[in-house]
Amino acid sequence: MKQYVIIAKDGIDADALERRMQARPFHLAGASQLKANGQFVVGGATLNEQGQMNGSVMIVQFDTDADFEYWYNNEPYIQQGVWQEISVQPFKVANVE
Fold it and tell me: Residue 63 needs a FRET pair 20 to 30 A away by CA distance; which of 5, 20, 39, 52 works?
């Protein structure tokens, strides 16, 4: 499987946190589905100094780039404008024993 690391920053406008909270149940449902399919490696929210969510880091894996693109284009945080700055890089989880 091909692995990808996504580092995304939320918007900084006054409605950014509310936008995240509205999209969050859909994002988490999608992440749960990815996990059930063996496509979610790890992920979570980044926090600002006040402990509020302001971005995300995810490591996901898909059989093909096309499968990744399909997921990416349908990710609620992207569709609903939560993530404003997004970096996607090929990734390989270290096999540490």
Answer: 20
